[in-house]
Amino acid sequence: MIELKNEQLTVLIAEKGAELQSIKDNEGREYLWQAGPEWPRHSPILFPIVCTVNNDTYRVDGKEYHLPRHGFARDVEFKVESQSSEDHSVLLAIQHTEETLKVYPFFFRLSIMYSLKGNKIYVTWRVLNLGKEEMHFQIGGHPAFNVPGGKLEGKILLDNEEQMTTLKTHPDGSVEMTEVPLEAEGGVMTINNEFFRNDSVKIHNFQTECAILLDVDGTPAVTVFYLTPVCAFWSPYGKQAPFVCIEPWCGVGDPVGFDGEFKDKPLMNHLLPGDSFNSGYCIRIK
User: 11, 35, 85, 283: which one has the fewest Cβ atoms less than 10 Å from its Cβ?
Assistant: First the structure.
């Protein structure tokens, strides 16, 4: 377990999946979901797909490959490439192997940088195409935050007071590239079990750049800043789990009925040989 610590926060990161495990303030309050029977993860990295490909199957140049939900990076052991106690940062990375090439036919390097600055945690993704062909991929974050008050009742404030839309999603998680009104009033989403009756709520087309999970007294508890085309919000429907995921995504799952080439699915990212892609998000505590 890797620890980043300053006067305001203590952050733990596992080498498996380069996954955040804990975010505590200097009073010992835990902000990150600590896993459990409702959901056994904390903050997985989604790569090289976000959500699912239909029937766990996709095609590259006509050849079929198979990937489970959210891809494989979340279950791979990352290597610590550098760590700085002065900068309170750590860089972890993986790259293609014989095993990954069986399910994802691209030569790549994926690195995750965590930097702790004051009350903020910066998460930076970098994807490099090491191959000789154009590479296609998606990437996203999936941090789960404890809902203040200890039950699935709360509010999330967005940085857009106008009426927004979300992608139409079905209870099984399947998505359509169709806009439906977001259940929010003046940029405030009231989260409870019913809010997630159709799986995750996916705001796309850069309609927001910031989501604030409010504390029980109405002040900010956790703020997530992102410049990604999608931000999704999720808690497992019916389980009354006291957490909510605020998920910056560069990608989205296969739309219902999509049967095209991997490169042609919506919100796909493309890299020419030798090129790199950089994105990420920031978590602010209080």
Answer: 85
Residue 172 has pLDDT above 90, yes or no: no
Mean pLDDT, the chain, rounded, equals 97
Q: What is d(CA 55, CA 69) in angstroms, rounded to the nearest whole number?
A: 10
The CATH class for the domain spanning 2-285 reads: mainly beta
42-88 pLDDT, tens digit per residue, is 999 999 999 999 999 999 999 999 999 999 999 999 999 999 988 89
Average pLDDT over residues 196-210: 97
Residue 173 pLDDT > 90: no
